[in-house]
UniProtKB/TrEMBL annotation:
SUPFAM superfamilies: FomD-like
Annotated organism of origin: Streptomyces pristinaespiralis (strain ATCC 25486 / DSM 40338 / CBS 914.69 / JCM 4507 / KCC S-0507 / NBRC 13074 / NRRL 2958 / 5647)
InterPro entries: DUF402, FomD-like_sf, Ntdp-like
Record keywords: Hydrolase
Entry keyword annotation includes Hydrolase: yes
PANTHER family: PTHR39159, UPF0374 PROTEIN YGAC
Protein's UniProt name: DUF402 domain-containing protein
Gene3D superfamilies: FomD-like (2.40.380.10)
Length: 162
Protein backbone atom coordinates (compact mmCIF):
# COMPACT_ATOMS: atom_id res chain seq x y z
CA UNK A 1 0.00 0.00 0.00
CA UNK A 2 1.39 3.40 -0.98
CA UNK A 3 1.51 6.41 1.31
CA UNK A 4 -1.26 9.00 0.92
CA UNK A 5 -0.27 12.04 -1.08
CA UNK A 6 -0.59 15.59 0.24
CA UNK A 7 0.36 18.97 -1.16
CA UNK A 8 3.11 20.98 0.54
CA UNK A 9 2.84 24.73 0.04
CA UNK A 10 5.81 26.99 0.77
CA UNK A 11 4.87 30.63 1.30
CA UNK A 12 7.34 33.51 1.28
CA UNK A 13 6.48 37.18 1.86
CA UNK A 14 2.76 36.36 1.67
CA UNK A 15 2.90 34.64 -1.74
CA UNK A 16 3.08 30.98 -2.64
CA UNK A 17 6.67 30.27 -3.65
CA UNK A 18 6.14 26.63 -4.64
CA UNK A 19 3.59 23.82 -4.28
CA UNK A 20 4.42 20.18 -4.72
CA UNK A 21 3.01 16.74 -4.02
CA UNK A 22 4.54 14.65 -1.26
CA UNK A 23 3.90 11.24 0.24
CA UNK A 24 2.70 11.52 3.83
CA UNK A 25 4.90 9.17 5.86
CA UNK A 26 3.78 10.10 9.39
CA UNK A 27 1.76 12.68 11.30
CA UNK A 28 1.50 12.45 15.08
CA UNK A 29 -0.36 15.75 15.40
CA UNK A 30 2.82 17.75 16.01
CA UNK A 31 5.56 16.27 13.79
CA UNK A 32 4.74 15.64 10.11
CA UNK A 33 7.07 13.68 7.84
CA UNK A 34 6.71 13.62 4.06
CA UNK A 35 8.81 12.40 1.16
CA UNK A 36 9.01 14.29 -2.12
CA UNK A 37 11.14 14.49 -5.22
CA UNK A 38 13.04 17.70 -6.01
CA UNK A 39 10.16 19.91 -7.11
CA UNK A 40 11.83 22.85 -8.81
CA UNK A 41 12.60 22.78 -12.51
CA UNK A 42 16.15 21.79 -13.44
CA UNK A 43 19.25 21.90 -11.26
CA UNK A 44 19.91 24.35 -8.43
CA UNK A 45 23.62 24.62 -7.72
CA UNK A 46 24.33 26.37 -4.42
CA UNK A 47 28.09 25.85 -4.70
CA UNK A 48 28.16 23.61 -1.62
CA UNK A 49 25.42 21.22 -2.89
CA UNK A 50 23.41 20.62 -6.05
CA UNK A 51 19.71 19.83 -5.94
CA UNK A 52 18.64 18.11 -9.13
CA UNK A 53 15.88 16.02 -10.69
CA UNK A 54 15.70 12.63 -9.00
CA UNK A 55 16.84 13.90 -5.58
CA UNK A 56 14.64 12.65 -2.75
CA UNK A 57 13.73 14.90 0.17
CA UNK A 58 12.46 13.43 3.43
CA UNK A 59 10.98 16.51 5.02
CA UNK A 60 10.18 17.03 8.69
CA UNK A 61 7.74 19.75 9.75
CA UNK A 62 6.48 20.65 13.19
CA UNK A 63 3.35 22.46 14.24
CA UNK A 64 5.10 23.80 17.36
CA UNK A 65 8.61 24.64 16.10
CA UNK A 66 9.98 27.43 13.95
CA UNK A 67 11.85 25.25 11.45
CA UNK A 68 11.72 22.32 9.08
CA UNK A 69 14.50 19.85 8.35
CA UNK A 70 14.91 18.15 4.98
CA UNK A 71 17.16 15.14 4.55
CA UNK A 72 18.42 15.20 0.96
CA UNK A 73 19.51 12.09 -0.93
CA UNK A 74 20.30 11.29 -4.53
CA UNK A 75 17.84 9.13 -6.40
CA UNK A 76 20.00 6.09 -5.63
CA UNK A 77 20.05 6.82 -1.90
CA UNK A 78 23.38 8.61 -1.30
CA UNK A 79 23.01 11.16 1.51
CA UNK A 80 23.86 14.72 0.43
CA UNK A 81 23.01 16.37 3.75
CA UNK A 82 20.29 18.29 5.57
CA UNK A 83 18.73 21.54 4.46
CA UNK A 84 17.01 23.34 7.31
CA UNK A 85 14.48 26.10 6.66
CA UNK A 86 13.57 28.58 9.35
CA UNK A 87 9.79 28.88 9.14
CA UNK A 88 6.75 29.64 11.18
CA UNK A 89 5.19 26.48 12.62
CA UNK A 90 3.51 24.38 9.90
CA UNK A 91 -0.22 24.83 9.43
CA UNK A 92 -2.91 22.82 7.68
CA UNK A 93 -3.64 23.91 4.12
CA UNK A 94 -6.79 23.51 2.10
CA UNK A 95 -7.44 19.97 0.98
CA UNK A 96 -5.53 18.43 3.87
CA UNK A 97 -2.12 19.64 2.79
CA UNK A 98 0.56 21.50 4.70
CA UNK A 99 1.43 25.19 4.50
CA UNK A 100 4.74 26.60 5.72
CA UNK A 101 5.89 30.23 5.78
CA UNK A 102 9.59 30.59 4.98
CA UNK A 103 11.37 33.27 7.07
CA UNK A 104 14.48 33.48 4.83
CA UNK A 105 17.05 31.99 7.21
CA UNK A 106 18.47 28.56 6.34
CA UNK A 107 21.11 26.13 7.54
CA UNK A 108 22.99 23.53 5.48
CA UNK A 109 24.66 20.52 7.09
CA UNK A 110 26.77 18.27 4.85
CA UNK A 111 26.39 14.49 4.98
CA UNK A 112 29.60 14.12 7.01
CA UNK A 113 28.54 16.91 9.38
CA UNK A 114 31.76 18.83 8.78
CA UNK A 115 30.25 21.64 6.75
CA UNK A 116 27.65 23.71 8.61
CA UNK A 117 26.57 26.87 6.81
CA UNK A 118 24.22 29.62 7.96
CA UNK A 119 22.50 30.92 4.82
CA UNK A 120 20.54 33.96 3.70
CA UNK A 121 21.10 36.09 6.80
CA UNK A 122 21.30 39.11 4.47
CA UNK A 123 17.87 38.26 2.97
CA UNK A 124 16.46 37.94 6.48
CA UNK A 125 17.75 41.40 7.45
CA UNK A 126 16.42 42.90 4.20
CA UNK A 127 12.99 41.28 4.68
CA UNK A 128 11.97 43.80 7.34
CA UNK A 129 10.66 41.06 9.64
CA UNK A 130 12.48 42.55 12.64
CA UNK A 131 10.43 45.73 12.22
CA UNK A 132 7.12 44.13 11.18
CA UNK A 133 7.09 41.27 13.66
CA UNK A 134 9.89 41.44 16.25
CA UNK A 135 8.62 38.33 18.10
CA UNK A 136 8.69 36.23 14.93
CA UNK A 137 12.15 37.57 14.06
CA UNK A 138 13.44 36.62 17.52
CA UNK A 139 11.93 33.11 17.17
CA UNK A 140 13.56 32.75 13.75
CA UNK A 141 17.02 33.66 15.05
CA UNK A 142 16.57 31.41 18.08
CA UNK A 143 15.53 28.51 15.80
CA UNK A 144 18.58 28.99 13.56
CA UNK A 145 20.87 29.07 16.60
CA UNK A 146 19.24 25.89 17.97
CA UNK A 147 19.64 23.99 14.70
CA UNK A 148 23.25 25.11 14.30
CA UNK A 149 24.02 23.95 17.85
CA UNK A 150 22.34 20.59 17.18
CA UNK A 151 24.37 20.21 13.98
CA UNK A 152 27.60 20.99 15.83
CA UNK A 153 26.90 18.62 18.76
CA UNK A 154 25.62 15.81 16.53
CA UNK A 155 22.02 15.84 17.76
CA UNK A 156 20.32 17.17 14.61
CA UNK A 157 19.28 13.73 13.38
CA UNK A 158 17.75 12.91 16.79
CA UNK A 159 15.02 15.43 15.90
CA UNK A 160 14.09 13.25 12.95
CA UNK A 161 13.77 9.97 14.81
CA UNK A 162 10.21 8.94 15.35
Amino acid sequence: MSAPSIEVRLVKAGATKIRYPADLLADDGTHVTVRALWAAPGVRDFGFVRFEPGDVFTEHYWRDRWYSVKEVRTGDGVLKGWYCDITRPAEPAEGGGLSVEDLDLDLWVSADGKEILRLDEDEFEESGLRERDPKAAAEAVRALDELEQRARDGSLTQLLDR
